[in-house]
Design a protein that fits this description.
about 575 residues, alpha/beta
């Protein structure tokens, strides 16, 4: 400081506070609502949210907030969460790890003690008591694609821009550590006049052309080619290219469980869900009998492949990913699928492409006895009649994730699932975030419906976010599948063991407990097929706004066939000793 002038900031052309800069950048990259909880190390920063045009959500706990930021990001393209140092951020870690696992971009901002306190090693609350203020950042580093510690005002703007760009382009969480004494520090605001460049980096032209030529060589030679679309095609934003490829080549296209919702399921080329041995016979025959499988954005996890039961040779496979491509046994690092797909579309010789029709799956007719209990098979084969174009469907880890394979979506349905990370309870928070993203996009009155299929056991982990749905007037239909416990766990081990049981709740009373009124929430109880058909045909139920909460009963030991197959494979793998 010289004569009352801070020489560190006097040359700034448009000085802005660090928090204002950070939150303005969040707004510029498309975020409109920020999840999280207040804590004394982030309170001053939270004051800056309204000025940047951001809405504070205010969740019930940090784990739920992380799940919600995940759901928000899957619908909006990117999400954000603010927690406090130590106790807050560690509560969110499970949700952030799930986002990292499943390639979901979340900006995790942690309000932390001042740089002065850190340098002094003070024995502060929310610390481990050992003077180590980097312990939690180090923990988060392994589940973040970038870590930014905003300790030096001369570097902060560049750190923020770099972290946000990495978050979006790599589609994974980033960790931003914001000390209390940096919140109001002045940095250069002129940078805000130029938005962060979020364009996908171009491939090296020669390398890209070589890969395209190799792909086309095998595509033109194939007699029975198919396309298989997985989750990373969604996360890394290549669905336009995928649909253009299908339209031009007329190739049959399938999705994996994690990729469900990626393809317009009303398209005549759509063949269904492929998951190895758990697939329908016609789907399994066509995919595994193909002499060229073009796999886009694959994530070959155990539950995504029904226990690693894929039966495809690498010699007949082309695997396109966000940062590399594999053609047969040749790998091309650094060649991204987006550019490759676009050039394949542009250069393919349609006179040399052989396209077989997609299999037509005939559903077994199940007589709808109005007094009969609601079974998994009947429910998932019929619920598609209730779905509409543009709906957002969220399925919880368990029976819903597997049952929905048999449901044909209308056009433009967005499907959220967490098949790889599989943290039960995720879907409640994710539903709240997804519904909020839909509201942010189109407004309160025109927001898309968000429909959650949730198990009773999973609901008990994260049920508090029902209050957040009601508080923000979100357009949610929540089906609670009441089947007396953890069904997926029962099929893996311990069918009748007490550890797979749960307490019996009065579920239909929950909306009222969490502040719902006649105008903002309504509860329903359904126990027979006739009752469900009547409810699904009720125009008020379908069209009313706010929360519709359905207590839906199914038999305790009933499960989709695909879940049984996958659970059996999981149990065998768990029992391996060498």
């Amino acid at each position: 400081m010289t004569n009352g002038v801070d020489i560190r900031t006097k040359n700034l052309k448009k000085p802005v506070d660090v928090a204002e800069y950070l939150f303005t950048r969040l707004y510029q990259i498309g975020i409109r609502s920020v999840h999280g909880l207040p804590g004394d190390f982030n309170l001053v920063a939270l004051d800056y949210l309204p000025k940047a045009g951001l809405k504070w959500v205010g969740n019930c706990n940090e784990l739920n907030a992380a799940y919600a930021a995940d759901g928000y990001a899957r619908v909006n393209g990117i999400g954000a969460i603010i927690t406090t140092f130590g106790v807050g951020e560690l509560s969110a870690v499970n949700g952030i790890a799930g986002a990292y696992s499943e390639h979901v971009p979340i900006v995790h901002i942690v309000g932390c003690p001042s740089t002065i306190s850190q340098r002094s090693g003070l024995l502060l609350h929310h610390t481990l008591g050992n003077g180590d203020f980097n312990a939690f950042a180090n923990m988060s580093a392994t589940i973040s694609c970038a870590v930014a510690k905003l300790n030096d005002p001369t570097e902060i703007a560049a750190q923020i821009d770099h972290a946000l760009r990495e978050c979006y382009l790599r589609s994974r969480p980033v960790y931003i550590m914001l000390p209390t004494d940096m919140v109001e520090k002045k940095i250069e605001g002129e940078r805000l006049e130029t938005e962060i460049d979020l364009r996908e980096p171009s491939n090296d032209p020669d390398r890209e052309d070589y890969v395209v030529d190799v792909v086309l060589k095998y595509l033109h030679a194939a007699q029975k080619p198919v396309v298989l679309v997985d989750a990373c095609a969604i996360r890394h934003r290549v669905l336009d290219e995928v649909h253009d490829l299908i339209e031009k080549t007329n190739l049959p296209v399938f999705v994996t469980p994690m990729g469900k919702g990626a393809i317009n399921e009303t398209h005549p080329n759509f063949g269904g869900v492929y998951s190895g041995s758990a697939s329908s016979p016609a789907i399994k025959e066509m995919v595994e009998g193909s002499d060229l499988v073009i796999s886009i954005g694959s994530m070959k996890s155990d539950f995504n492949t029904a226990g690693f039961s894929y039966r495809m040779s690498q010699l007949t496979s082309i695997d396109l990913h966000s940062d590399h491509c594999i053609v047969r046994y040749s790998e091309y690092p650094g060649v991204r699928m987006k550019g490759v797909l676009r050039k394949v579309i542009d250069r393919v010789d349609m006179s040399r492409v052989k396209a077989l029709p997609a299999p037509k799956i005939e559903r077994p007719h199940i007589k709808s006895d109005p007094q009969a209990v609601i079974t998994q098979e009947w429910f998932w084969a019929n619920i598609d009649q209730f779905l509409r174009e543009d709906d957002i469907v969220v399925t919880e880890t368990g029976t819903a994730n597997f049952g929905v394979w048999e449901t044909r979506f209308p056009a433009n349905v967005t499907h959220l699932n967490q098949t790889l990370w599989g943290s039960i309870g995720w879907a409640v928070g994710a539903c709240q975030g997804a519904a909020l993203a839909a509201q942010d996009e189109r407004g309160l009155d025109k927001a898309r419906r968000t429909i959650l299929f949730e198990g009773d056991g999973s609901l008990q982990l994260t049920v508090q976010e029902i209050s957040t749905m009601i508080r923000h007037k979100l357009n949610v239909i929540l089906f609670v599948i009441c089947n007396d416990g953890y069904t997926i766990e029962r099929y893996i081990h311990g069918m009748n063991e007490a550890y797979n049981d749960i307490a019996e709740w009065r579920y239909k009373d929950l909306p009222a407990v969490f502040g719902g009124t006649e105008d903002t929430a309504k509860s329903y109880v359904v126990k027979t097929r006739g009752e469900l058909e009547e409810l699904l045909g009720d125009k008020d139920f379908s069209d009313r706004k706010g929360l519709r909460f359905v207590e839906l009963y199914m038999p305790r030991e009933d499960a989709p066939i695909s879940l049984k197959v996958t659970a059996e494979a999981s149990a065998k793998r768990n029992a391996m000793t060498e």
